[in-house]
Amino acid sequence: MSMPARSYLTGLAFLSPALFVLIGFFFLPVVLTAVFAFTNMSTSTGISGGSYVITGNLLGSLKAQGVAPTVVDALSQASFVVDEQSIAKAQAAGTDAQFLAEIEQQLSGKAFSEERAFERELKSLRYRPRSIRDLKLAVDQFELSVLNTRFASAAEAREAVSELVPSAPADVVDEIVDASYTGWRWTTSNFTRLVSSSDTWRLVGNTIFYVAVTLSFTVFVGLFLAVTTFYLPAGAASAFSMLWLLPRITPVVLYTVMWKWFTWEGGFVYTAAQALGLPAFNYMKGSVPTAWTIVIMVNGFIGAAFAMILFSGALKAIPVQQLWASEADGASRWQQIRFIILPHLRWPILFVVSYQTLSLLSSYQEIWLTTNGGPGRTTTVWALESFNTALNSYTGNLQYGLGAAMALILVIVGVALSILYLRLFRFDELLSRPKIEF
C-alpha cells in the first residue's frame, strides 16, 4: 500500500469516532425529524400501522362531508342475519348444537333490523336457552354491524360496509373505508396547516422578538463584561468573572426557581415595590411587558456569561505590543477598544452570534419553567410550541408529525442563518494567514 493511501486510511480511522458521533447525534435525528414531519403521526394514530374502525364521530364527519344520510344511517344501525357465516360464528362461540340446528332450519336466510324482533323469534324455538344471559349471547353472534368493529385490512372493512349497505356506490365505500383508517399516513398537511394558521405568524413574531432582543443583550453585556474585566487588576477581574459565571454554571431548574422567588408574589421585587408604593404583582406572569423582560433577562444572563468567557479568552490573545504602541501614540481606552480590541474579536463575536442564535431558536426550557409561555400564550415561542405539540399537549393527543414539522422548520432556519452569518462576517478572511507577525 502506498504512503498517501496509508496516511488517508490512518486519518479516516482517527476521524471515525467523530463521524459516528456526528451521524448518530446530528444527522440521524434530523433525518428522523424530516421523516416524521411528512406524516400525521399522533397519539391517536400511533407510530405503527393502524386498523380500520368506523365510529360514531366518524359517521358524523362523513355526513358533514356530503356522504348520503341513508348510507350513514345504515352504517350506524345493526341488523341480525341468519346465514352460513353467522351460524359458523355461533358454533365457534359454543352455542348449543340443537338450538343452532333449529335456528338454521327455521330462520336461515332471514334478516332482522331490530334486536328485540330477533329475540322474540328465538324465544319461540323449542330448544332455546332458559337463561336470559345465554339467549343474549346467542343473539350477539348473529349481529351484523360495522360500528366500532376493528378490521385488520381495508379489504375486510370494504367487504363489511358493502354487505351492510349494498346500495352504496363503490367510490363512497372507498371514501368511508379510507376515513376509518386509524394509523398514520404520509402527508404534507402539517406544513399547509402551519402556513394557513394565524397562530403561526404570532409564534414567528414572538420568536423573532425573543431571539433578536436576547441575542443583543447577550452580545453587548458579554462584551461589556469582558472588556471591563480586561482593564481591571488581575485579582478583581477573577472575582468579577466568577460572579458573572453563576448564571451559566447554576442548574437551570435552580436558576429559574431563584427567579420565581425574586419576582413572584411575596418575592424580593414584590416586597420592594410594596414598600415604595409601586404596583406589586407577579412580575413573571402578571403582565406581558414584565413577562418578556424576565424571559429575556433569564436567558440573556446565561448567554452573557458564555459570551464573556469567549471574549475574555480572545482578549488575552491580543498582542500586548499593539496596546503598548497605541498608548504611546496617545490612544484613549475607547480608541483602543474601537480600533484594536473589536477587530480582534471579530471571530469570537461571529461565533457567539451564530451559536447563540441557534441556541435561542431551539431553547424553550427556561420559558417553560418560568412563564410557561404566558400570560396566555404571549411569550410562547416556536420551539416551546413545537415541544408542547409533540410531547406536552394539554389535550392528551400528542401530534408527533406536526411537532416534527415545526422542528424541521427550525433546523432549516438555523442552517440558513448560519450560512448568512458566515457570508456577512466574511469567514474566509478570518481563516486567512495574518498579515502582521510578531
What does this molecule look like?
With 438 residues, this protein is mostly helical. The longest helix has 35 residues. The relative contact order is 0.10.
Write a concise keyword list for the protein shown above.
mainly alpha; MetI-like fold; 2 domains; two-stranded antiparallel sheet; 22 helices; Inositol-phosphate transport system permease protein; transport
Write the layout of secondary structure elements.
Elements: H1 3-37, E1 52-53, H2 56-64, H3 69-76, E2 79-81, H4 84-92, H5 97-107, E3 111-112, H6 115-123, H7 132-140, E4 143-144, E5 150-151, H8 154-164, H9 170-179, H10 189-196, H11 198-230, H12 234-249, H13 252-263, H14 268-276, H15 288-316, H16 320-328, H17 333-344, H18 346-362, H19 365-370, H20 382-391, H21 400-424, H22 427-430
Helix pairs in contact: 1-21, 2-3, 8-9, 11-12, 11-15, 11-18, 12-15, 15-18, 18-21, 20-21
Pfam families: BPD_transp_1
Subcellular location: Cell membrane
InterPro entries: ABC_transporter_permease (IPR051393), MetI-like (IPR000515), MetI-like_sf (IPR035906)
Short structural summary:
With 438 residues, this protein is mostly helical.
Overall pLDDT = 83
Percentage of residues in DSSP E strands: under 5%
Overall geometry: elongated
CATH class identity of the largest domain: Mainly Alpha
The biggest beta sheet reads: 3 strands, antiparallel
Give the helices and strands as they follow along the chain: HEHHEHHEHHEEHHHHHHHHHHHHHHH
User: By CATH's scheme, which homologous superfamily of the largest domain applies?
Assistant: MetI-like
In helices, the fraction of residues equals: 55-70%
The CATH architecture of the largest domain can be named as Orthogonal Bundle
Residue ranges: pLDDT <50 for 5 or more in a row? none
Structural class call reads: mainly alpha
What's the alpha carbon Rg, rounded to whole Å?
Answer: 35 Å
How widely separated are the two ends?
A: 43 Å
> How many distinct folded domains?
2
CATH topology descriptor of the largest domain: MetI-like fold
- Strands ordered across the widest β-sheet: 3-2-4
Q: How many extended strands?
A: 5
